[in-house]
Amino acid sequence: MEKKALVYTGKAKKLYQTENAAVLFVEYLDQATALNGQKKDKVLGKGALNNQITSLIFEHLQQQKIPNHFIKKVSEHEQLIQAVEMIPLEVVVRNYAAGSFSKRLAIEEGTKLVTPIIEFYYKEDHIQFLKVATPAEIVEIKALALQINQALSQLFQRLNICLIDFKIEIGRTKANQLLLADEISPDTCRLWDLNTNEHLDKDVYRRELGEIVPVYEEVLQRLLTAN
Ligand code: UDP
Questions:
Q1: Average pLDDT of the chain?
Q2: Res. 117 pLDDT band, cuts 50 70 90
Q3: Mutation test residue for ligand 1: of 120, 121, 165, 209, the one with most atoms within 8 Å of CB
Q4: Which atom of ligand 1 is nearest to the CA of 202?
Q5: Distance from the CA of 18 to the center of ligand 1, in angstroms?
Protein backbone atom coordinates (compact mmCIF):
# COMPACT_ATOMS: atom_id res chain seq x y z
CA MET A 1 0.00 0.00 0.00
CA GLU A 2 1.38 3.41 -0.97
CA LYS A 3 1.71 6.46 1.27
CA LYS A 4 0.11 9.43 -0.49
CA ALA A 5 -0.93 12.96 0.58
CA LEU A 6 -0.60 14.00 4.22
CA VAL A 7 -4.11 14.55 5.61
CA TYR A 8 -3.53 15.27 9.30
CA THR A 9 -0.67 16.14 11.64
CA GLY A 10 -1.35 15.47 15.30
CA LYS A 11 0.79 15.85 18.40
CA ALA A 12 2.43 12.46 18.05
CA LYS A 13 1.34 11.11 14.67
CA LYS A 14 0.69 11.90 11.03
CA LEU A 15 -2.03 10.45 8.81
CA TYR A 16 -1.64 9.93 5.07
CA GLN A 17 -4.02 8.87 2.32
CA THR A 18 -3.37 5.66 0.42
CA GLU A 19 -4.51 4.58 -3.06
CA ASN A 20 -7.59 3.15 -1.29
CA ALA A 21 -9.93 5.90 0.01
CA ALA A 22 -11.10 3.58 2.82
CA VAL A 23 -7.58 3.10 4.24
CA LEU A 24 -5.16 5.53 5.91
CA PHE A 25 -1.49 5.22 6.74
CA VAL A 26 -0.51 6.30 10.28
CA GLU A 27 3.02 7.31 11.14
CA TYR A 28 3.94 7.48 14.85
CA LEU A 29 6.38 10.31 15.57
CA ASP A 30 9.30 10.56 17.98
CA GLN A 31 7.56 13.40 19.76
CA ALA A 32 6.21 13.97 23.27
CA THR A 33 3.90 16.83 24.21
CA ALA A 34 2.10 17.89 27.38
CA LEU A 35 0.28 20.88 28.84
CA ASN A 36 -1.68 21.47 25.61
CA GLY A 37 1.50 21.53 23.56
CA GLN A 38 3.38 24.03 25.76
CA LYS A 39 5.85 21.28 26.66
CA LYS A 40 7.24 19.54 23.59
CA ASP A 41 10.30 17.34 23.03
CA LYS A 42 11.79 15.03 20.46
CA VAL A 43 12.06 11.59 22.07
CA LEU A 44 14.00 9.11 19.97
CA GLY A 45 12.33 5.69 19.91
CA LYS A 46 8.94 6.81 21.23
CA GLY A 47 7.15 6.56 17.86
CA ALA A 48 8.19 2.94 17.30
CA LEU A 49 7.28 2.02 20.88
CA ASN A 50 3.80 3.53 20.70
CA ASN A 51 3.19 1.98 17.29
CA GLN A 52 4.06 -1.46 18.65
CA ILE A 53 2.14 -1.01 21.90
CA THR A 54 -0.99 0.36 20.19
CA SER A 55 -0.88 -2.38 17.55
CA LEU A 56 -0.68 -5.16 20.16
CA ILE A 57 -3.52 -3.63 22.18
CA PHE A 58 -5.78 -3.19 19.14
CA GLU A 59 -5.03 -6.78 18.05
CA HIS A 60 -6.10 -7.92 21.51
CA LEU A 61 -9.29 -5.84 21.36
CA GLN A 62 -10.02 -7.24 17.90
CA GLN A 63 -9.84 -10.76 19.35
CA GLN A 64 -12.31 -9.60 21.99
CA LYS A 65 -14.67 -8.52 19.17
CA ILE A 66 -14.47 -4.83 20.05
CA PRO A 67 -15.11 -2.94 16.80
CA ASN A 68 -12.06 -0.83 15.93
CA HIS A 69 -10.27 0.86 13.05
CA PHE A 70 -7.00 -1.10 13.18
CA ILE A 71 -5.94 -3.03 10.06
CA LYS A 72 -2.28 -3.92 10.60
CA LYS A 73 1.14 -2.72 11.61
CA VAL A 74 3.25 -2.32 8.45
CA SER A 75 6.61 -1.08 9.75
CA GLU A 76 8.34 0.05 12.91
CA HIS A 77 6.64 3.45 12.84
CA GLU A 78 3.61 2.79 10.67
CA GLN A 79 0.25 1.08 10.64
CA LEU A 80 -2.78 0.95 8.37
CA ILE A 81 -6.20 1.92 9.67
CA GLN A 82 -9.71 2.14 8.32
CA ALA A 83 -10.64 5.73 7.39
CA VAL A 84 -13.54 6.94 9.56
CA GLU A 85 -15.19 10.24 10.41
CA MET A 86 -13.82 11.10 13.85
CA ILE A 87 -16.39 12.10 16.47
CA PRO A 88 -14.84 15.22 18.06
CA LEU A 89 -15.06 13.93 21.62
CA GLU A 90 -12.44 12.71 24.03
CA VAL A 91 -13.96 9.92 26.08
CA VAL A 92 -12.18 9.40 29.40
CA VAL A 93 -12.79 6.30 31.53
CA ARG A 94 -11.59 6.33 35.13
CA ASN A 95 -11.21 3.37 37.49
CA TYR A 96 -9.12 5.23 40.08
CA ALA A 97 -8.82 8.95 40.84
CA ALA A 98 -5.81 10.66 39.24
CA GLY A 99 -4.72 13.74 37.31
CA SER A 100 -7.30 16.44 36.64
CA PHE A 101 -10.04 14.41 38.39
CA SER A 102 -8.05 14.31 41.63
CA LYS A 103 -7.29 18.01 41.39
CA ARG A 104 -10.83 19.06 40.57
CA LEU A 105 -12.50 16.98 43.28
CA ALA A 106 -9.65 16.99 45.83
CA ILE A 107 -9.53 13.20 45.91
CA GLU A 108 -6.20 11.54 46.51
CA GLU A 109 -4.62 9.93 43.44
CA GLY A 110 -5.02 6.16 43.52
CA THR A 111 -8.40 6.20 45.29
CA LYS A 112 -10.52 3.42 43.80
CA LEU A 113 -13.82 4.60 42.31
CA VAL A 114 -16.83 2.50 43.25
CA THR A 115 -17.76 2.07 39.59
CA PRO A 116 -15.92 3.32 36.50
CA ILE A 117 -16.67 6.94 35.61
CA ILE A 118 -17.03 8.05 32.00
CA GLU A 119 -16.41 11.68 31.02
CA PHE A 120 -16.84 13.39 27.66
CA TYR A 121 -14.67 16.31 26.62
CA TYR A 122 -15.10 18.24 23.41
CA LYS A 123 -12.02 18.60 21.31
CA GLU A 124 -10.88 22.22 21.49
CA ASP A 125 -11.70 23.02 17.84
CA HIS A 126 -15.24 21.72 18.17
CA ILE A 127 -16.31 23.32 21.36
CA GLN A 128 -19.23 25.18 19.76
CA PHE A 129 -20.06 22.36 17.46
CA LEU A 130 -22.98 20.96 19.37
CA LYS A 131 -24.35 18.11 17.33
CA VAL A 132 -21.26 15.94 17.71
CA ALA A 133 -23.15 12.72 18.28
CA THR A 134 -26.78 11.65 18.49
CA PRO A 135 -28.24 10.64 21.88
CA ALA A 136 -28.33 7.03 20.66
CA GLU A 137 -24.66 7.26 19.71
CA ILE A 138 -23.77 8.60 23.17
CA VAL A 139 -25.50 5.59 24.74
CA GLU A 140 -23.57 3.30 22.38
CA ILE A 141 -20.25 5.09 23.05
CA LYS A 142 -20.72 4.67 26.82
CA ALA A 143 -21.40 0.95 26.44
CA LEU A 144 -18.39 0.60 24.13
CA ALA A 145 -16.18 2.53 26.58
CA LEU A 146 -17.16 0.20 29.44
CA GLN A 147 -16.56 -2.86 27.27
CA ILE A 148 -13.11 -1.52 26.31
CA ASN A 149 -12.40 -0.74 29.96
CA GLN A 150 -13.16 -4.31 30.96
CA ALA A 151 -11.01 -5.82 28.21
CA LEU A 152 -8.10 -3.45 28.90
CA SER A 153 -8.29 -3.77 32.68
CA GLN A 154 -8.10 -7.57 32.37
CA LEU A 155 -5.25 -7.40 29.88
CA PHE A 156 -3.19 -5.01 32.03
CA GLN A 157 -3.94 -6.98 35.19
CA ARG A 158 -2.23 -9.95 33.51
CA LEU A 159 0.80 -7.68 32.97
CA ASN A 160 0.83 -6.73 36.64
CA ILE A 161 -0.38 -3.25 35.73
CA CYS A 162 -3.32 -1.33 37.17
CA LEU A 163 -5.33 0.62 34.56
CA ILE A 164 -6.04 3.87 36.42
CA ASP A 165 -7.72 5.76 33.57
CA PHE A 166 -7.55 6.22 29.81
CA LYS A 167 -8.80 8.33 26.93
CA ILE A 168 -10.33 6.98 23.74
CA GLU A 169 -11.73 8.47 20.57
CA ILE A 170 -14.47 7.03 18.43
CA GLY A 171 -14.95 7.08 14.67
CA ARG A 172 -18.06 6.66 12.54
CA THR A 173 -18.01 4.62 9.33
CA LYS A 174 -19.98 5.56 6.21
CA ALA A 175 -22.53 2.93 7.31
CA ASN A 176 -22.85 4.78 10.67
CA GLN A 177 -21.09 2.04 12.60
CA LEU A 178 -19.10 3.28 15.62
CA LEU A 179 -15.51 2.07 15.90
CA LEU A 180 -12.80 2.56 18.46
CA ALA A 181 -10.21 4.72 16.68
CA ASP A 182 -7.05 6.75 17.49
CA GLU A 183 -4.48 5.02 19.76
CA ILE A 184 -4.25 3.27 23.10
CA SER A 185 -0.77 3.63 24.55
CA PRO A 186 1.05 4.96 27.61
CA ASP A 187 0.41 8.41 26.07
CA THR A 188 -3.34 7.95 26.54
CA CYS A 189 -3.59 5.68 29.60
CA ARG A 190 -2.47 5.92 33.20
CA LEU A 191 -0.73 2.66 34.00
CA TRP A 192 0.63 1.94 37.48
CA ASP A 193 2.74 -1.05 38.42
CA LEU A 194 0.50 -3.24 40.61
CA ASN A 195 3.19 -3.84 43.23
CA THR A 196 5.04 -0.53 43.40
CA ASN A 197 2.52 2.02 42.00
CA GLU A 198 5.35 3.18 39.73
CA HIS A 199 4.05 5.28 36.80
CA LEU A 200 4.42 3.40 33.50
CA ASP A 201 2.92 6.15 31.32
CA LYS A 202 3.18 9.73 30.09
CA ASP A 203 2.95 11.14 33.62
CA VAL A 204 6.69 10.36 33.74
CA TYR A 205 7.10 13.04 31.07
CA ARG A 206 4.33 15.41 32.24
CA ARG A 207 5.66 15.41 35.81
CA GLU A 208 9.34 15.15 34.89
CA LEU A 209 9.82 11.92 36.85
CA GLY A 210 12.49 10.53 34.49
CA GLU A 211 13.01 9.19 30.96
CA ILE A 212 9.94 7.83 29.17
CA VAL A 213 11.61 5.47 26.68
CA PRO A 214 12.64 2.84 29.30
CA VAL A 215 9.17 3.05 30.84
CA TYR A 216 7.36 2.56 27.50
CA GLU A 217 9.82 -0.28 26.73
CA GLU A 218 8.79 -1.94 29.98
CA VAL A 219 5.11 -1.79 28.97
CA LEU A 220 5.95 -3.23 25.53
CA GLN A 221 8.02 -6.06 27.05
CA ARG A 222 5.17 -7.00 29.38
CA LEU A 223 2.71 -6.98 26.46
CA LEU A 224 5.03 -9.16 24.36
CA THR A 225 5.43 -11.73 27.11
CA ALA A 226 1.64 -11.85 27.67
CA ASN A 227 0.87 -12.60 24.02
N1 UDP B 1 -5.57 12.08 28.27
C2 UDP B 1 -5.17 12.00 26.93
N3 UDP B 1 -5.15 13.17 26.20
C4 UDP B 1 -5.51 14.38 26.72
C5 UDP B 1 -5.91 14.44 28.07
C6 UDP B 1 -5.93 13.28 28.80
O7 UDP B 1 -4.86 10.94 26.43
O8 UDP B 1 -5.47 15.38 25.99
C9 UDP B 1 -5.60 10.84 29.07
C10 UDP B 1 -4.56 10.86 30.18
O11 UDP B 1 -3.38 10.23 29.77
C12 UDP B 1 -5.24 10.07 31.26
C13 UDP B 1 -6.74 10.31 31.04
O14 UDP B 1 -6.86 10.79 29.71
O15 UDP B 1 -4.96 8.68 31.09
C16 UDP B 1 -7.35 11.30 32.01
O17 UDP B 1 -6.61 12.49 31.99
P18 UDP B 1 -6.99 13.73 32.93
O19 UDP B 1 -8.35 14.20 32.55
O20 UDP B 1 -6.78 13.33 34.34
O21 UDP B 1 -6.04 14.87 32.47
P22 UDP B 1 -4.52 15.18 32.81
O23 UDP B 1 -4.36 15.06 34.28
O24 UDP B 1 -3.76 14.17 32.01
O25 UDP B 1 -4.39 16.58 32.30
A1: 95
A2: very high
A3: 165
A4: 11
A5: 31
pLDDT, position 22: 96
C-alpha 70 – ligand 1 centre gap (Å): 22
Q: Are 12 and 32 contacting, i.e. CB atoms less than 8 angstroms apart? A: yes
Distance of CA 148 to the CA centre of its chain: 11
Amino acid in position 127: I
- CA distances (Å), 54 to each of 36, 63, 142, 150, 168, in order? 22, 14, 21, 17, 12
- Testing ligand 1's pocket by substitution, the residue of 92, 184, 201 carrying the most ligand atoms inside 8 A of its CB is 92
Q: Which residues contact 99 (CB under 8 A, 6 or more apart)?
A: 109, 165, 190, 203
Q: How far is 46 from 29, CA to CA, in rounded Å?
A: 7
Reduce the DSSP state of residue 188 to 3 states and report it: coil
**Amino acid residing at 186:** P
Rounded Cα gap, residues 221 and 217, in angstroms: 6
